[in-house]
Amino acid sequence: MLSWKITAIFGVILLVMAGLGAWYFNYSQNKIADLNTRMGSYETAIQTQQGTINVMKKSIEDSNAAQAQLSQQFSNVQANTTAALQKVLSKHNISADAAAHPKLIETDINNGTKKAASDFENITDPSNFAPAAQGAKK
Q1: What's CA 77's distance to the chain center, in Å?
Q2: What span, in angstroms and rounded, lies between the C-alpha atoms of 127 and 133?
Q3: This prediction's pTM
Q4: What is the spatial distance between Cα 49 and Cα 38, in angstroms, rounded to a whole number?
Q5: For the segment 78-99, what is each residue's pLDDT rounded down to a tens digit?
Q6: How many CB atoms lie within 10 A of CB 95?
Q7: 130: DSSP letter
């Protein structure tokens, strides 16, 4: 009679172990499925972020190119202005001219200042650096 009870106890233990094994198997499969789903969404997010990084790198390259172009234009304008100014100033004695014709000198100075401001506005106008404007200039 005792062997029958021992067999029954081992049978119950075996059933409990089988139930726990089945539960753990289902749990682990659900966990694996959840992790695979998360991994897929992470991969999608990584691809999206990589695309954004590439766009930002391109934007930085474009900005650097525009800055280099602006710097070159500024250097050219500065060199041309300096040369023109030296040419004009070397021909005149400004002190004597200012004393003799103050209104004429004032007009010339004001016109030169307006032209310099206009040139500066033109080379720093953002519309000159828009992609469509750059394509049209080339």
Answers
A1: 29
A2: 7
A3: 0.45
A4: 16
A5: 888 888 888 877 887 778 877 8
A6: 9
A7: S
